[in-house]
Design goal:
Layout lengths: L3 H15 L7 H11 L19 E8 L6 E7 L1 E4 L2 E10 L8 E3 H5 L7 E4 L4 E3 L18 E3 L3 E9 L7 E5 L6 E7 L1
Parallel strand pairs: 3-11
Antiparallel strand pairs: 1-2, 2-4, 3-4, 4-9, 5-8, 6-7, 6-10, 10-11
Length: 186
């Protein structure tokens, strides 16, 4: 049986995360907000699993759906922290040829793939991006997150952690072919 203290700690951490409060705060939170893109909940709730701690498990090219060009994308291993799991994606947007230095994710893809989902192929469960208490998703705001052409930009999405027996998950973004076998790191 699980002790009451061990049962309460993950719930408290989830409450802090969903309320937009960081457990660490201060300078580290500002750095996470700078690299993670604008978050819809305004509190950096999309998580910030750094590329220093997650390995790149797949690289792909995602063509723009509403502009000319494409972006190079690196997908990092899924990091489980308590009852939540973070997916970090590094996007290096290619120039659209319109003379601008960059564009928002919405200007490049519209709402296509705004909230990628994960599939647990062991239990056949679909994992959507977690919503905060006020119904905002814990991922980048596609309208507010600007990608500077030629510069890598890290964005992060937060999901409910899968059961312990799940070692890999598949990523689906819009109509792109899925990225399969992304390792789950605990």
């Amino acid at each position: 049986m699980r002790s009451p203290v061990r049962a309460v700690v993950p719930l408290m951490a989830l409450a802090f995360l969903l309320s937009g409060c960081g457990l660490g705060g201060g300078e580290g939170q500002e750095a996470a907000d700078d690299t993670g893109g604008g978050q819809e909940d305004g509190g950096g709730g999309g998580g910030s699993a750094s590329t220093e701690t997650t390995e790149v498990v797949a690289e792909d090219t995602w063509p723009y759906t509403v502009a000319d060009g494409e972006a190079e994308v690196q997908i990092h291993a899924l990091q489980v922290q308590g009852d939540l799991m973070h997916l970090t994606v590094t996007i290096t947007a290619g120039d659209t040829g319109d003379g601008q230095d960059g564009a928002s994710m919405y200007d490049l893809w519209s709402s296509f793939g705004a909230y990628p989902y994960l599939v647990d192929s062991v239990n056949l469960n679909r994992h959507e991006v977690v919503r905060a208490g006020n119904a905002h998703r814990l991922g980048p705001d596609v309208v507010e997150t600007t990608l500077t052409f030629g510069e890598p930009r890290e964005v992060s999405y937060t999901y409910a952690a899968p059961p312990e027996d799940v070692e890999t998950m598949d990523l689906y973004a819009g109509s792109l072919p899925p990225v399969t076998g992304i390792p789950v790191q605990r």
